[in-house]
Amino acid sequence: MTGFPELCATTMDRDLASFFARVTPDDVRRAMARSMPSADDFLTLLSPAAQGLLEEMAQRAHELTVRHFGRTMQIFTPLYLSNHCTNRCVYCGFNAGTGVARKRLTMDEVRAEGETIAASGQRQLLILTGDAPALAGVDYLERCTKILRGMFPSVTMEVFAMTEAEYARLAAAGIDGLTMFQETYDPVLYERLHPAGPKRDYAFRLGAPERGCRAGMRVVNVGALLGLSPDWRREAFLTGLHADYLQRHYPNTDVAISLPRMRPHAGHFQPATAVTDANLVQILLAQRIFLPFAGITISTREAPAFRDNIVPLGVTRMSAGVSTAVGGHASDDNADTVQFEISDHRGLAEFSTMLRSRGYQPVYKDWEPNAHVAGNRP
Questions:
Q1: Which residues belong to any copy of the Radical SAM core domain (predicted)?
Q2: Residues near 53 by Cβ (< 8 Å), separated by ≥ 6?
Q3: Side-chain-facing half-sphere of 293: CA atoms under 13 Å
Q4: pTM for the whole thing?
Q5: Closest residue by Cα to residue 302 from 346, 353, 242, 268
Q6: d(CA 289, CA 30)
Q7: Residue 163 to residues 8, 140, 214, 215: CA-CA distances in angstroms?
Q8: Domain range for residue 83?
Q9: Any bridge partners for residue 226, and if so which?
Q10: End-to-end alpha-carbon separation of the chain, Å?
Q11: Does any domain span residue 36?
Q12: What total of structural domains would you count in the chain?
């Protein structure tokens, strides 16, 4: 059986330019009309020929989204627990070589952050750390989760790649989902962007989402950091194929996609390419048509007007009330620990008002963990 690593390698070798040169507008219309688009249909929707048909694609994406998700939007917010990191990722503000201040929240500070966020009305939390297991590893995440689970029905994580046993341990502690960005699916570029640190292991990271599925995570979210590679179409194609692979092999897991673009951060790295608003919309529409059941996340990396306008086009999950500083919700003294600059600074109430004005229901909670999960409310 062919696994995703083999599929990824084959796709990296594929001549997409020759494929795109043959695509016509009629091919794009046929691809968007299919009830079960193939991988080549998906690639057709990502082609330059599809750029002139974004309005038709938007109508199709909207129809599929309303059919499967209704007019709803899941809302979550991140909580940065630690920015200690042993990696040297050239594009990241947590890079071990940057001069940012380093901080790891104590358990009292974790509780204070959680209480501040919960008081705002948030019920879905994403916890984040850098990659420094000796300081903020599985034991630390387990202790944090047991505190936060008492305040939030859903606690997911975006941290370092783990083994299946480690994922299973955190699932038992109350983590119900994980986000794992491959950053770039190109192994040659990946090696250049990750010169040192455990994250340099491309294969171990590529296998992390599948290990999370096997370990019993309820939600597994994948994506590439758009802008790292000059070939954004190939990155978007592989992200969709990755999600499709996980959906077909792990039907008991909710598989989702995130579409982050590069943002300014500490350091001097410049993106390889500018993924424009039109490019990002095309990726969003193509992903929705190819994967009608997948959740799609757009974060506060994007500007308010852009986020407002794409609400009907296939997005199902957005962040609000965001701070990317460690302990940035409960204290104003942590600005020097920020990972990157966000674009949308609206709080939960203001963002929810926007959604309602557009006929959409903000969803703060749609899931309840099993009673046996540690830290669960009675």
A1: 71-294
A2: 25, 28, 29, 32
A3: 14
A4: 0.94
A5: 346
A6: 12
A7: 21, 16, 10, 9
A8: 4-363
A9: 261
A10: 44
A11: yes
A12: 1
Whether residue 376 lies inside any domain: the answer is no
Q: Are 170 and 138 in contact (CB under 8 A)?
A: yes
Side chain identity, residue 66: V
* Nearest alpha-carbon partner for 181 in 142, 239, 107, 229: 239
H/E element, 245: helix 232-249
Structure token pair of residue 280 = 């990002």
* Within a domain: 314: yes
Instruction: Indicate the length of the chain as a whole number.
Output: 378
Mean pLDDT per 10-residue segment, the chain (378 residues): 91 97 98 97 98 98 97 96 94 84 95 96 96 95 96 96 98 96 97 95 98 97 95 97 98 97 68 89 98 96 95 96 86 69 90 97 86 50
Asked whether the beta carbons of 221 and 258 are under 8 A apart, the reply is: yes
- Measured CA distances, 68 to 25, 123, 239, 289, 315 (Å): 27, 22, 21, 12, 12
Whether residue 34 lies inside any domain: the answer is: yes
Structure tokens belonging to residue 129? 């750390």
Consecutive H or E run containing 180: strand 175-183
359 torsion bin: left (phi>0), alpha (psi -120 to 50), beta (else): left
